[in-house]
Specification:
This is AsmA-like C-terminal domain-containing protein. The protein is α+β, with helices and mostly antiparallel strands. Among the domains are: about 35 residues; about 190 residues, no CATH class. The protein is built from twelve helices and 23 strands. The protein has a 23-stranded mixed β-sheet that branches. The N and C termini lie far apart (about 135 Å). About 5% of the residues have low confidence.
Length: about 600
């Protein structure tokens, strides 16, 4: 049955006038799609080769152009570097620091404006979506400045003969599999992420953006989101994980939540390693004003601030550690920075509510002693190895507030000279009132001493030094100190008191108060400590303090020498009595059985 509106001749003419152009347009579009798809494929391949100066080639199984939809679809896409060209560029000093391989199932380029391209020579694309790409980046520090490249032209200058500008509204990379190989160190460091999403916004290459340092890879913003990432170190001794990582180049921020760095079980760790074991757990870490561009190009690490919120840092001394008499200057913080072999510049580091503990196994007690710094907050300034930053300010400072053993308020300030080869430093601190019995968690396992009574009024120290020598002023004020010297039963590992030495110490050695009487001037001491080359930084500081703490408590070098001699004499007399008793018993036995039992 004929359609009613086509019954008249006029209606048929109007319909034909509408349908024929539409059909012709569809046929033309189909022909263009069919004819231009191979051309498009060839153009894309040539553009990649030309744009990368023959370093990369692109390959794909199929390319489809849908001109009416303004869409291009590429399937099974590969971006492959030419290693021969890369090696040649390395010899010429023009090789890039990052070498990229990419494989993707599909790339969809949509919202294309062909008329802008044809009439105005402007590339304008609304959206690019890359599905399930596998990206592998190999990094090697081939050059540290752009000026090492012979071709100083920007990307826009290279494109300007053919196009006025290139713009992409949004680029989405979903479900990324990412592998990163860092060849800048002595060993190749490999990192892998199984699932990640990236979004790049407002990519623009033109005369205005060619030198815009607020853009990364010419994008106004590159944001990323990684969830539940985990891995294992190359030696297999640690696992690391994070709940979430978010980054944005527009805000210049990186936010990490739920970070963990855990060692394997203690018996496994200490059987395979002679190094100390540590464990880190942080609720959140935030980098502000992070320079993504410098990190991307040269691995230089620059941030305005790093904020660490709540966490735990546990350190465990390795009982199987082999003592090696070698220079340990690299343990000084101002020297350790340079051992990172990184261009580093951090204006401030703020740490909030971090619980720190150090544990060590006592050789005599076979028990673990632990020193605790609870609720630690710190403000660290000018952590840098950058030459320009050091020319402006070469002093790094740290102000730390914590609770020693969870009981006494401890304030410490550090200063480190970051330029002098002698590694100068200074430390000043004040510990407020606390019960001295709180330190038994350290003194009992490690020193076999139990403080049974005593109150700390204050402890002030002021130490300054360098790699060779340290000077200090120590003032320890306390009341009513009494101690108990201990031994450990080998059978059940329980503590017991050394009766005579304990009485001896309390009666003749320990000064129970400082000052001795109210109103008297308290005992304070100036100390000097010449650092052995195998003494690490914190041991150097502690030994300097100890040289002032011992005489404060009544155990100066003269007294200690005298006490040791008297104790040795007592022990020798005890051994002599035991030997006489043994000889007497043997003699009695020989008289009773002259010819043997």
């Amino acid at each position: 049955m004929p359609i009613s509106f086509l019954k008249t001749k006029r209606s048929r003419i109007i319909a034909a006038a509408i349908i024929i152009p539409v059909v012709l347009l569809l046929v033309a579009a189909l022909l263009i799609n069919t004819l231009l798809s191979p051309v498009l494929a060839r153009k894309v391949r040539n553009a990649v080769i030309k744009g990368s100066d023959s370093l990369y080639r692109a390959d794909f199984s199929d390319a489809q152009l849908h001109i009416l939809q303004g869409k291009v679809m590429l399937y099974n896409v590969s971006l492959i570097p030419d290693t021969a060209v890369y090696r040649r560029k390395m010899k010429l000093g023009t090789a890039p620091n990052n070498l990229i391989r990419l494989n993707a199932r599909r790339i969809v380029v949509s919202e294309i404006h062909p008329f802008k391209l044809y009439f105005n020579k402007v590339i304008d694309i609304g959206r690019i979506a890359i599905n399930s790409p596998h990206i592998q980046v190999s990094y090697a520090l081939n050059h540290t400045k752009d000026t090492t490249e012979k071709d100083h032209r920007t990307a826009w200058q290279k494109l300007s003969k053919s196009f006025k500008s290139a713009h992409v509204g949004d680029i989405f990379l979903d479900n990324i599999s990412f592998k990163y190989d860092d060849h800048s160190g002595n060993k190749v460091a490999v990192s892998e992420i199984k699932q990640m999403n990236l979004h790049a916004h407002d990519l623009l290459i033109d005369s205005a953006t060619q030198t815009d340092r607020t853009r990364l890879l010419y994008c106004k913003d590159v944001s990323g989101d990684v969830e539940n990432y985990s891995g294992r170190t190359a030696n297999g001794l640690y696992t690391y994980s994070l709940k979430r990582l978010k980054l944005s180049t527009a805000t210049a921020k990186v936010i990490i939540t739920g970070f963990k760095f855990d060692p394997v079980e203690a018996d496994v760790f200490f059987s395979k390693s002679r190094k100390d074991k540590f464990e880190v757990r942080l609720d959140s870490v935030q980098l502000n004003n992070f320079d993504f561009l410098s990190y991307h190009k040269y691995r230089s690490f620059a941030a305005g601030s790093i904020v660490i919120n709540s966490g735990v840092l546990d350190l465990y001394n390795n009982p199987n550690k082999i003592k090696i008499y070698k220079e340990k200057l690299e343990t000084f913080p101002n020297v350790a920075l340079y051992k990172l072999n990184t261009d580093l510049k951090i204006d401030t580091i703020d740490i909030k509510k971090l619980n720190i503990a150090y544990s060590e196994l006592g050789k005599k007690s076979h028990k673990t002693g632990t020193i605790v710094f609870a609720g630690t907050s710190a403000h660290i300034r000018n952590v840098t190895t950058n030459p320009n930053a050091l020319n402006k300010d070469s002093i790094a400072t740290a102000k730390i507030n914590t609770w020693f053993m969870g009981k006494g308020k401890l304030n410490i300030s550090f200063r480190f000279n970051l330029r002098a080869s002698s590694a100068p430093y200074s430390i000043k601190g004040h510990l407020g009132p606390m019960s001295l019995q709180a330190v038994n968690k350290i003194t009992m396992p490690l020193s076999m001493v139990k403080i049974t009574e005593g109150t700390l009024k204050s402890y002030d120290f002021d130490i300054y030094g360098n790699a060779k020598i340290s000077h200090g002023h120590i003032a320890l004020l306390y009341n009513d100190v009494k101690v108990r010297l201990l031994r450990v039963n080998e059978d059940n590992l329980l503590y017991s008191r050394k009766l005579i030495p304990t009485l001896f110490a309390n009666l003749f050695i320990i000064k129970h108060n400082n000052p001795d009487k109210p109103g008297e001037t308290p005992r304070t001491f100036n100390v000097v400590y010449s650092r052995p080359k195998d003494s690490p930084f914190f041991k150097t500081v502690w030994t300097t303090m100890l040289k002032g703490l011992k005489p404060t408590m009544g155990l100066d070098e003269k007294t200690e020498s005298s006490v040791n001699k008297r104790m040795d004499d007592m022990n020798q007399k005890k051994k002599d009595r035991a030997q006489k008793k043994k000889d007497k018993a043997e003699k009695k036995k020989n008289k009773k059985y002259p010819f043997g039992a």
